[in-house]
Design brief:
Order of helices and strands: HHHHHHHHH
Low-confidence stretches: none
Helix content: over 70%
Strand content: under 5%
Mean pLDDT: 88
Number of helices: 9
Length: about 180
Amino acid sequence: FVALNLLAQYFGQLRSSGGLDHYATLPVPPAAVVLGAAGAYASFTVPGTVVTAVVGCLLFGLPLAHLWVLVAVIPLAGAALAGLGAALGLLAPRPELATLLGQLGMSAALLLGVLPAERMPEVVRLARDLLPSTYGVEAFARTFGARPDWAFVLGDLAVCAAVGVISLAVATWAYRRAAVR
């Protein structure tokens, strides 16, 4: 969720300052610019995510056996949120709005993705289901049962992957659109 906020701010600032014009002159496809920025910002979260998962398992007496699932969860959920952040930053008409949207998206991903769905009102539960990070959290959480249901884990990861592809494609389109102006 940090990548969502940072990329919204980064691309919003690039767009308003004319920095996209510099990137547009590079001999690389727009998708490479978006993916490179998304990968760079998303990679900042990897050490903290791993440490949080290990410390959380130790604090709550959870098994460490399935922490390897983070190898799939981190890039898939990260790509989905980074693509959303880049798209928000590139589509926002002003950098202030990009920052606001990034902050709101990060807050929503943080709060709705980790709070138990059973205790939420139906409207909030629907909003939770629209966030790709929720599926990454659910995929990871499903591995802590006595017998993890790997079909559900793979289904949650597939949702993250699909949203990642779509959001990065939208961000690439928005980059092309913004770089032409």
